[in-house]
Fold these 4 entries.
Entry 1:
Amino acid sequence: QVQLVESGGGLVEAGGSLTLSCTVSGLSFGDYAIGWFRQIQGKERSAVSCINFNSKLIRHTASVKGRFNISRDSAKKTSYLQMNNVKSEDTAMYYCAAEKSPYCELQPLRMNFWGQGTQVTVSA
């Protein structure tokens, strides 16, 4: 059974930092790109960042470039989303997802497996 479990969400002040984790089980971690997405209630899920299987390809959506970093640890089967200088507009439910691909695409429809999400709330 494939599982992606996000953790690390919570309440953070604007300008602060938060690191989300996504631990994967039930699949060959090295065969999958990992993507992070977010969703505000009532709106569509949107892409944040992704990282390919060997960490050589990384993409960020424009609004988080220079503030967010994505990484992965194969030994721990975990991906991390480091969120720096957070803003109120970063408030959302954050999801990680896995895509069986050597590439990294910021497209929700391409993802094969999803986690349940972790809430991030940025206070002013």
Note: The mean pLDDT is 97.
Entry 2:
Amino acid sequence: VRLVESGGGSVQAGGSLRLSCVASGSTYRTYCVGWFRQPPGKEREGVAGISKDERITYADSVKGRFTISQDNAKNTLFLEMNSLRPEDTATYYCAADLGNWACKSLDWTQFSIRGKGTQVTVSS
């Protein structure tokens, strides 16, 4: 499966963005799917995931502000980001795995399939 992200951009603090990730070559139903990010100069970190049994996990840093969802009919994963903060500035990656652990643990290293990323910049 190939993953392609879109929707990144620049926004002021307090603003919103919606990221999308379209999968080709397979369907999301057979994978757990999620997002991770890499802030400039920092390590990658898991953001949110949906397991194959549709359980959703969020990183503490984004709970209440970000919403992950998927449209299986369109093979598209979304990340709605509200109340953005400068510390949310990062490259955001869409990811998938045949197992569930990656999405439940948000351990980005466990995602075997990853997109190329989309840049999100939040200014103060």
Note: The first strand starts at residue 2 and ends at 6.
Entry 3:
Amino acid sequence: QVQLVESGGGSVQAGGSLRLSCAASTSGYTYCMGWFRQAPGKERAGVAAICTRGGSTYYADSVKGRFTISQDNAKNTIYLQMNSLKPEDTAMYYCAASRVYGAGLNKDWYDYWGQGTQVTVSS
């Protein structure tokens, strides 16, 4: 089992920055960890993922150049640095872990999910 705990959400004005953290307590190996988000009335969608101990990263087109995913293997923690935030980034952000090699941003391949942390960007 893998337990994921997110932190770092909050409210910020457009153009601002936030950093999300996700700490994993695991008794098993996972290939990928990622961040997904879900806005009211919309499906949950992939934002960024990091796979095989940081060897590969994946980003949604909408966040490329603004968000950066990173991993601290010693702490079993991933981070999402979000810069130049826009109102359309407002959503509940979820951390997830996958046992599937190369899961990337495919949410159906993720086995474990955190409770989520809210990010609100005002204009």
Note: The chain has a mean pLDDT of 94.
Entry 4:
Amino acid sequence: QLQLAESGGGSVQAGGSLRLTCAASGHTTSDSCMAWFRQGPGREREGVAFLNAVGDTSYADSVKGRFTISKDDAKNTLYLQITSLTPEDTAMYYCAVATRYLFDCRRREFDRWGQGTQVTVSS
């Protein structure tokens, strides 16, 4: 069964950068929608970056130009490069996979989730 494990979170100052990593095990993710979600204090969970099976990406408006999602199929690993961090980016970040879908990822139900990695940004 597919398992996901995030890492790379931490505490940074505004303007800083981080690279989050999601290591997948138990099943390949190369033929699935993949995404990063986040949930900040008192906020609903939101999808911030999506990647389909052929490498097309899409982003939430709030992170466009600052976040980059990518993957390494050989390593079965998903990444999220985050730059120009602001305190509003403070959240638990989760990677997720929609195992039954390859495309149109923003509309899909994601059925595999990691435990999350915390990102805290101070001003």
Note: The mean pLDDT is 95.
